Amino acid sequence: MTKVKNRVLVSMIILMIGILAACGETGAPEETNAKASGEKTEPVTIENMGRTIVFEEAPQRAVSLNQHATEIMLALGLEDSMVGTAYLDDDILPALKEAYEKVPVLSEQYPSQEVFLGAEPDFVYAGWKSAFADQALGSVEELEQLGIQAYTQASSNTNAPTMDDVFSDIQNIGRIFRVEEKAEALTREMQEKMDAIHSKVKDVEEPVRVFVYDSGEKEPFTAGQNFLNEMITLAGGENIFREIEKGWASASWEEVVKRDPEVIVIIDYGDTTLEQKKNFLLNHPALRGVTAIKEERFIVLPLSAAAEGVRGPIAIEELAKGFYPERFE
């Protein structure tokens, strides 16, 4: 399992170095100079989660919540416009670590309202709408009354999100911070990486059957029509529970056996270790006849790789290589 984790880490480093290098080759100096000189720009209007938000100027004191939102901010080079961040699921991407260390960490999970307001933010970007629950920061309407504008990652809070939905979020953040060229470069490089991977699996006649195991012993908690379902498809696979309309849902072991997955994707996070999850599956009496169990075909992804962010190409490559290793030799 250590070798698997190391391989994923190497893939992350290589892909993100390429993506960030492409961003650095765009017209970023003009964007940076405009911001530094205090040059006035036209107001930017964004539609987000049923709300119309007008940004008269780029935020100067942003807080990011949830890992995929934080990594999008850092991939766009916005660390100098950030006064806080919170709620990582995994280690930050190696290519973004230096930028991340420049940003104050407000909390391991959602910060209290007191801690959040103490950072004196003018903008908050959350990956999940749970950030704006009463027990977290409070509603976006309440924050707006305090002069704090809010953006929620739309692709993380919709049914059956696609990669285009993720790109839309990235481009919206680019518009809000007036770094549109960086956002275009980032999404273009991500698309090119995915196209290169997909080209190796697009002619597969019978997609490999895939079961996603998040957690659960009495019944499995698995992926339905969420972003991981999209990535499995782009990698040339077929999610055996793709008809479930919810993003994550409970299924039954009987259905897992009936659908006979050829590969199992384990989501590595939480108090249950990767080894414990794998051993549970391998020793489950009902699963002994399942192809993936007999052949011990497992792919491991961190929780952050299943979220709608810059890790999409990394996860798709890891999935495709696990589905069809012979096509990547």
From TrEMBL:
TM annotation in the entry: none
Signal peptide: 1-21
InterPro entries in UniProt: ABC_Transporter_SBP (IPR050902), ABC_transptr_periplasmic_BD (IPR002491)
Domain Fe/B12 periplasmic-binding span(s) in chain numbering: 61-329
Keyword Transcription: no
UniProt keywords, alphabetically: Signal
CDD domains listed in its UniProt record: TroA_a
Family: Belongs to the bacterial solute-binding protein 8 family.
PANTHER family reported for this sequence: IRON(III) DICITRATE-BINDING PROTEIN, VITAMIN B12-BINDING PROTEIN
Protein name: ABC transporter
Taxonomic source organism: Bacillus thermotolerans
Lineage: Bacteria, Bacillati, Bacillota, Bacilli, Bacillales
